[in-house]
Design goal:
The chain has 350 residues and is α/β, with parallel strands linked by helices. The chain has 13 helices and 14 strands. The strands form five sheets. Strands 7-4-3-2-13 form a five-stranded parallel β-sheet, covered by helices on one side. A three-stranded parallel β-sheet has the order 8-10-12, with helices on one face. Helix 1 links the parallel strand 2 and strand 3. Helix 4 packs across helix 5 and helix 9 packs across helix 10. The chain is globular, with a radius of gyration of 19 Å. 55% of the residues are buried.
């Protein structure tokens, strides 16, 4: 698949003329949608179709984790925060695992039916109760429970033709700082990280098509944030055996600013081992990275791993949503959000 290493965003719900020119540049490989780009399901589907007409190989992404991080809302099922599955798991592990799979399938079906390829999900961070930016986005506070629940969620996603992208490697949950606003420093030893945060990534790496590193410095291991660290990205490839696509987190975040201007940030992330860099909420920054990539030999690259992230067209998401399975998935989402154990048990015994 011929695609460049830049994923950028759009200003609003309609594709502007200069954006249409941007997405046709060979250095661009993807577009991520935010809430400002979304009005209705019909509008998103039309926007996705327009983008795919311009570049069929373009990756179209969104953040549709559930809870606080759910860009598609009008006409879409409200998904509960994943932490509710962790709470459910404490008393009813089988119900939680089944519900995780239903929610993964529902999320994937609703994203795929409007022509988007994938959501940056699941979150594989471990919840320590001290990171507000992660908070209830994490499945659980125990690594093995994260593996179990996220694994079931991935099963659901992949059954509906969506690739899975785990984040934020090797784990953002232990630091209080928000990498959108600052550069968090994790002072734990490598052994502590390996015994906790790294375990979900290690267990699930063979089943992931994408991984997003954290803008966090693990000071006892390396002085660079994970997304700019050759140590961490080599570890992901070599020790964990990950063969998919490595996405930088947004280069516009404060946690990335230590690398310099946007061109320098892109250069450092790509040199460290990222395959695709995200530049969001900063058109000037995207233009800088685009100009930088035009000067580089690897500005145009063929990445076989990217094709695995395209939505599988043979899976009919709309038909599934209109089927009894789709109806059940919506009821599961409602029951989990309401923490209605009786309703969940009734759904699974019908």
């Amino acid at each position: 698949m011929q695609a460049g290493p830049l994923m950028l965003d759009l200003e609003g719900p309609r594709l502007l003329p200069h954006e249409a020119q941007w997405v046709q540049q060979p250095e661009v490989g993807g577009v991520i949608l935010f809430a400002r780009n979304i009005e209705t399901a019909v509008q998103v589907k039309a926007l996705a179709a327009e983008l795919k007409r311009l570049r069929p190989e373009l990756l179209l992404a969104v953040d549709q984790e559930g809870g606080r991080v759910q860009r598609l809302r009008e006409g879409f099922t409200p998904l509960p925060p994943m932490a509710l599955l962790g709470e459910l798991y404490q008393q009813h592990p089988l119900l939680a695992m089944a519900s995780a799979q239903w929610l993964g399938a529902l999320m994937a079906a609703e994203v795929r039916q409007v022509g988007l390829d994938f959501s940056f999900a699941p979150v594989l961070d471990v919840a320590y109760g001290q990171s507000q930016v992660i908070g209830d986005r994490a499945f659980a506070s125990e690594p093995d429970q994260v593996v179990t629940l996220a694994g079931a969620f991935i099963d659901g996603m992949q059954s509906l033709g969506m690739a899975a992208t785990g984040k934020h490697f090797p784990g953002h949950g232990h630091v209080a700082g928000d990498s959108h606003l600052e550069l968090p420093i994790d002072q734990r030893s490598l052994a502590e990280i390996e015994q906790t945060c790294l375990r979900p990534f290690q267990a699930l790496a063979p089943r992931l098509q994408g991984v997003m590193p954290a803008h966090v410095v693990y000071a006892q291991v390396d002085d660079q944030p994970a997304g700019f660290s050759r140590y961490w990205l080599d570890r992901l490839r070599q020790s964990l055996g990950f063969t998919g696509t490595i996405f930088s987190d947004d280069l516009g975040m404060a946690g990335a600013a230590m690398a310099g201007d946007f061109a320098a940030r892109a250069e450092q992330a790509l040199t460290a081992g990222c395959d695709m860099v995200l530049v969001c909420n900063d058109p000037g920054g995207a233009e800088q990275v685009l100009a930088y990539l035009r000067q580089q030999q690897d500005g145009q690259r063929t990445l076989s791993s990217l094709s695995a992230l395209l939505g599988r067209e043979e899976v009919n998401a709309q038909a599934w949503l209109q089927s009894p399975k789709g109806e059940t998935a919506v009821k599961v989402a409602q029951a989990v959000a309401q923490q209605d154990i009786d309703a969940l048990e009734a759904l699974y015994t019908e």
